[in-house]
Specification:
CATH superfamily: Glycoside hydrolase/deacetylase
Number of strands: 9
Low-confidence stretches: none
Number of helices: 9
Shape: globular
CATH architecture: Alpha-Beta Barrel
Largest sheet: 5 strands, parallel
Radius of gyration: 17 Å
Mean pLDDT: 87
Number of domains: 1
Bound molecules: zinc ion
Helix content: 25-40%
Structural class: alpha/beta
Order of helices and strands: EHHEEHEHEEEHHEHHEH
CATH class: Alpha Beta
Length: 274
């Protein structure tokens, strides 16, 4: 294969839980939840992809769309929307198939009805890849999954499929497009580790992995693109310190990716392999 190595810019639009917002006194009832993380992060993602001139794949949690103004998603049409479950449950890969099916189906309907887009791709919460979820996805007409993360850190190390490495493969009629990790000890190479180890570390990992020839599936999180009130929520929910520089660092990383790599969506990659 010739030309620039290819990369995917993906964002998991993890919001906050309505119950948490209620507990914090920020909302009177969970049903009023317009997720503040999404309200702030989604327009910022659209804007920064505009600036970097790239298309992204955005994984949406169905329930977070409740109470959200459609305007938050203005400009989203250029990007691909994927399914990131309806409620973002813990340990998705261990759920009974009926529960998996419900999570995928409800999120699919919410994304279709609220955003007018039919997802064909899925990412499990916390990269909880499971071959059983592939059967559920195939049954619902999906073409790809992008949940597998090769990583020896807990909780990833105990998961099924971790030994499979970072190259795409087809299983049970579904294309698996693993999320990028480093060489041994296989740390995730995503927005979170970039903020921890720095942009030069991130760029170095990209260069090393690009040598393998597999597309680089890079993952960022909406919560790294918020400031102000949302940061207070994030601090409580994810127990991390707010980082004022994170917004500009993520922007710089996306601009770098778009300058150095040919940016494609996950769907485009999956279509080639399906
Ligand atoms: Zn998530």
């Amino acid at each position: 294969m010739t030309g620039a190595p290819r990369a995917v810019v993906s964002f998991d639009l993890d919001g906050t839980s309505p119950r948490l917002l209620t507990d914090m006194g920020l909302l009177p009832t969970p049903s009023d939840a317009a997720d503040p993380v999404l309200v702030e992060a989604v327009p910022r993602i659209v804007e920064l992809c505009e600036r970097a001139d790239c298309r992204a794949t955005l994984f949406v949690v169905g329930r977070t769309l409740e109470g959200l103004d459609r305007e938050v998603f203005d400009g989203i049409d250029r990007h691909e929307l994927g399914n990131h479950t309806h409620t973002h449950p813990d340990r998705f890969g261990t759920l009974p198939p009926a529960r998996m099916r419900e999570e995928v189906h409800k999120a699919h309907e919410a994304i279709r009805d609220r955003l007018g887009s039919e997802p064909v791709g899925f990412r499990a919460p916390d990269y909880d890849y499971s071959p059983r979820s592939l059967a559920v996805l195939a049954e619902q007409g999906y073409i790809y999954d992008s949940s597998l993360l090769r990583c020896v850190l807990p909780p990833y190390m105990s998961r099924e499929g971790v030994h499979r490495g970072g190259a795409p493969f087809v299983q049970g009629g579904i294309v698996e497009l693993p999320v990028l990790s480093s060489g041994f000890p296989w740390l995730p190479v995503n927005g979170t580790t970039m903020l921890t180890f720095g942009l030069s570390w991130f760029k170095r990992q990209l260069e090393q992995r690009a040598d393998d020839g597999a597309p680089l599936v890079v993952n960022f999180h909406a919560r790294d693109l918020v400031e102000g009130v949302s940061q207070r929520i994030i601090q409580q929910r994810f127990r991390v310190q707010p980082r004022e520089t994170s917004v500009s660092a993520i922007e710089e990383a996306v601009v770098h990716l778009a300058a150095k790599y040919e940016i494609v969506t996950l769907r485009e990659l999956a279509d080639e392999l399906a």
